[in-house]
Amino acid sequence: MSSNVGLSTPRGSGTSGYVQRNLSHLKPRSNPYPPPKDLEHSRQRLRQPDKDILTHEKKRDIEVKCVELRDKLEEEGVDEEEIEEKVSELRKKLLAELEAGGGARGSGKKALKSHQIHELAVAKMAQNARMEKALGISPDYEEGSHWQKQAQRKLERELGNSSKDSGLLRE
Length: 171
Hints:
This protein is flat. The termini are far apart. By secondary structure, it is mainly α. The chain contains 5 helices and no strands. The model has no long low-confidence stretch (mean pLDDT 80). The chain is 56% helix and 0% strand.
């Protein structure tokens, strides 16, 4: 073997003594992700919920409740006409609640599953609105506007000082 790599002798090791490099070794990167160039790119954006998908999910929940009622009544041995009547009454009642603005899915963010993206977005927007109200943040607040105001004041001070200096030089 050369340069102290591998076994000094392959005898008794059950191998041929051939040395290969480890292809599965990943070298750590010093800077894996370059920082974003613009502030707009780095801002956190909320996904806007799709109202059509939300109403579809609510209607789907209504149909699930209707099917559950149908199964329950069929197990009890109720007449088919009476089943249809009760299911249609339940469907009309639930659809009326949905149209009136009720029938919310889940009571909070914890009741939602990770695949309910649009419902989670609605819950997150409500949570952000509550937080903004609690902290007294105005709805038209723009992130980073404080730094722009400071830069504007500094520029005004510099312009004011330069105008005073030019006035002293004239006298």
